[in-house]
Amino acid sequence: xxxxxxxxxxxxxxxxxxxxxxxxxxxxxxxxxxxxxxxxxxxxxxxxxxxxxxxxxxxxxxxx
Length: 64
Prior knowledge:
The chain is mostly helical. Helices cover 70% and strands 0% of the residues.
């Protein structure tokens, strides 16, 4: 038995993703243009709605 329910897994993933976004936001202040593009690619790999997150973080404009 035991384990973690599907809902709890989902909540855990959301919390971790939110923490990563906060780290990116902190690093963004000192980031160069190339570092911003790397951050944007990492955000794209993390979530489906990445373009909205990139716009909110004011990262690089999407080339897609």
